[in-house]
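Reopening this ticket.

The earlier resolution said the output was attached, but the attachment link was broken on my side. Pasting everything inline this time so it's all in one place.
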Amino acid sequence: MLIDTHCHLDFPIFDSWRDQALRQACIASIGAIVVPGVTARHWVRVLDLTCGNSSAVRLYPALGLHPCFMSEHRPEHLDQLRTTVVEHRDRLVAIGEIGLDFQLEHYDARAQTELLQAQLLIAREAALPVLLHVRKAHDQVLKLLRQLRLPRAGIVHAFSGSEQQAREYAKLGFKLGFGGAISYPRATKLRRLAAELPLEWLVLETDAPDMPLSRWRDEPNQPLRVVEVAHIIAELRATTVEQVAQQTSATARKLLQLNHS
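Inline output:
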């Protein structure tokens, strides 16, 4: 069974074909999908989807305030997040999607950092792992993680850093999410990391409907494509898809305690 550790299946783009996407995922032996929240107004949508799902594919919720939606976040949302986490602690597998994005135009580094730190503290209080969105800010995120010493680590979603940064995350217990970006031949650094880093450090993801693979770049991404990600990693590492699936799924289950949720 494969696990998609990062898929925005709650997004409205899936409304007309969500059941179809889940059926295809099930047929492709995808056993679980983690659905992260990105804004406070969408947390109920994530919780409802992951609770009311009738598919054979298990859906697991995570809740967070994403750095790409800073204009939508309000100070009271942090209190709301803390309260919601307490209410749904037995169901949540992570706090996320949270992080820093210094690639955005006119980004406010201080505001993003304060928001991330507050959410990391909530994760620490709840003893939950985190799903991190990091662009052009890996050193800053690593500094915060070292300072706060979370009891449980998490996943650096859509990892885009250097080998040295990957090793620093690994020292803290973090795993690295690899998805559609490795399907592009020009992504030489990323493909090299997928080939050479210890397989135990990697987990699979789609980030659907975003981050489409090269063969389907004009279509919305979907959970089914995590199968292709597994095949690409197996090819890059000269190993079997079965080995990639077994190790990455075991890593995700242990890290996020999926069997206990």
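Reporter confirms the inline version is readable. Residues 8 and 158 are 13 Å apart (CA to CA). The chain has a mean pLDDT of 97.
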